[in-house]
Amino acid sequence: MTRLAPSDVMQLRKDFPILDQEVNGHPLVYLDNAATSQKPRAVIDAITHHYERDNANIHRGVHTLAQRSTQGYEGARTKLARFLGATDSREIVFTRGTTEAINLVASAFGPTVLGAGDEILVSEMEHHSNIVPWQLLCERTGAKLVMAPMDDRGQIDMAAFRERLSARTKIVALVHVSNALGTINPIEELVELAHTAGAHTVIDGAQAAAHLAIDVAALGCDFYATSGHKMFGPTGIGALWARAELLEAMPPWQGGGEMILTVTFEGSEYNEIPHKFEAGTPNVAGAVGLGATVDYLETIGMERIAAWEHELLEHGTEVLSTIPEIRLIGTAEKKAGVLSFLVEGVHAHDVGTILDLEGIAVRTGHHCAQPVMDHFGVAATTRASLAFYNTKEELDALGAGLRKVLEVFA
Length: 410
Ligand code: PLP
What we know:
The protein is an alpha/beta fold. The protein has two domains: 6-30 and 302-408, Aspartate Aminotransferase, domain 1 (Alpha-Beta Complex), CATH 3.90.1150.10; 44-298, Type I PLP-dependent aspartate aminotransferase-like (Major domain) (Aspartate Aminotransferase, domain 2), CATH 3.40.640.10. Helix content is 40%, strand content 17%. It is built from 14 helices and 17 strands. Helix 3 (64-83) packs across helix 10 (284-300). The structure holds pyridoxal-5'-phosphate.
């Protein structure tokens, strides 16, 4: 498999204006990509171009700008469908991001398949946005949330997962790549088990789409949620992919303009999918920016990105392993570029603050995955999360920064 060469990475870094700056007197080392990733010039320019030349409300206008704006928005839908391996762009519903996509499924689809006594199965490593919407659904319906545990490397315990699946399980909601641990879950296998038990499957792809080639058809799932800002696109835009027949059968989620065909005081007739789920004026510029992101990523190639990030992950793991005071949290066999760790005797918040003085941006805290922290008996970790524009030298700088942290607290 071809991978990006270090010289390619140096070239690609020039596409990201934000990376070329000093923070606290040091070259910026941005290792907080799981929280949000940086934006290439092509995406920034696409958004600027939209507002400078094309901006108008979409779908309803006959004038030229309305048509251009609509083309930009709908063109982005087609691009994203292709990027995720969907054959039908009607299967892409634009949302604010992963959180909204999961809430949409929980609110609109959930009550159609479950009731009191039924179960929703999630894993122990879920982000809060793949837990809380299901808890709200349980409160509404009397269904029960069931957790499938993970082992101490941060991998789903497959035997326990099988055990907790039953005829009562109506929805299985799982993260593709864990933001707190980096674990890449065996989604195809898990989806097959869930389907065999008669459940529908919802996959949280927030941390996957920027790092792996996604093919929803191959994964076999029913719903796939993702966020633009984690894949080098704008904030405030993301998508839910869902099989067309499920979207057709689902009631709308929010009511308003655009999601209807006709409205009278006696009742309303709903629009076709996906518009039935896009009430109100959407984030048009965000979608245009996301379309530009897809173009950008496709030019590089997701396989090459994944291969380089794997090499970076191995290097980063090696760097951390040379510091005896560091304990890595999340050592799954299949991992994406997340290094979550504890520094003996130093609170994660202090680690993050001292690294920032060195120009190194990492995230500290529970990473919106408190059950993961509970599993490992810790309140917080420090997390360095990678993107394809990171270099091995930056991971060496992280190692040097961590040695400074230890000196300060010696
Ligand atoms: N799921 C995972 C695994 C995440 O890492 C995140 C964000 O950190 C989310 C869901 C929520 O994404 P958003 O805040 O973009 O909706």
